[in-house]
Amino acid sequence: MATPIDILVTGGTGYIGAHLVPVLVAHGHRVRVLAREQSAGRVAAGATTVIGDALDELSVQSALKPGDTLIHLVGTPHPSPAKALEFQRVDLPSIQASVAAATTAHVAHLVYVSVAHPAPVMQAYVEARMAGEAAIARAGLTATVVRPWYVMGPGHRWPVLLLPIYWALELWPATRARAQRLGLVTIDQMIAALIEAVESPPPTGTVRVVTVPDIRRSLRPTRAVSG
Q: Which of 46, 63, 199, 223 is the 20 to 30 Å CA partner of 217?
């Protein structure tokens, strides 16, 4: 059993959060979930519900305590090129609010689910997530940035049809790196990577990047990036 950690999760009732929060609780961590009042009923058992707005810096800050781990999962559901305005209205402001609140509250570790890049599609989505990463780097926070491309699981299984294409692309040296960077991961792999990130934070003041190959291997990447 890992040493219990005080954790605040934003976006904890969404696709990844609904799978992650019960595992965090099962590991013995003290988990709080920031949720709007209309979403409070979807917070997993064993976690404490904190009513608030993840788009509002002061709301996030009021839910944080010094030394917390903040896991930021807020994002537009089922992102697509047609939702470019939502990425600017929800995805980017929410991580900016979390970064500002985390800085003021002196959190120990920020975990941010970003997206694999560079990528040939979903440019507005990638740009919003990259801007979130840049905000983290500028703030000088201790952070882990997790970069999946597509997370397969219940209700998110259609890309399984693409697996033979991915396998073929990964065999060719010219396309291998790109196919691996933009590869598919399962929800179980994603949750395992997030748990490992939470329980084994990077050195203070560094930003660790967890890529698709890292998620698949459930390893602890040591590569750090600076702003």
A: 46
Residues of the chain short of pLDDT 70, as ranges, are 1, 155-181, 218-227
User: What local confidence, expressed as pLDDT, does residue 177 receive?
Assistant: 63
CATH number attached to the domain at 6-154+184-225 = 3.40.50.720
**Widest CA span in the chain:** 51
Q: Which residues contact 182 (CB under 8 A, 6 or more apart)?
A: 116, 119, 149, 212
- pLDDT on residue 153: 80
The whole-number pLDDT of residue 14 equals: 95
* Spans of all domains in the chain: 6-154+184-225
Containing 72, the helix (H) or strand (E) segment is strand 69-72
Rounded Cα distance between 23 and 11, Å, is: 15
Decide: pTM greater than 0.70: yes
Element (H, E) at 16: helix 15-26
> What is the helix (H) or strand (E) element at residue 49, kind and residue range?
strand 48-51
Q: Torsion angle of alpha carbons 120, 121, 122, 127, nearest 10°?
A: 20
Q: Taking the CB of residue 62, how many other CB atoms lie within 10 A of it?
A: 13
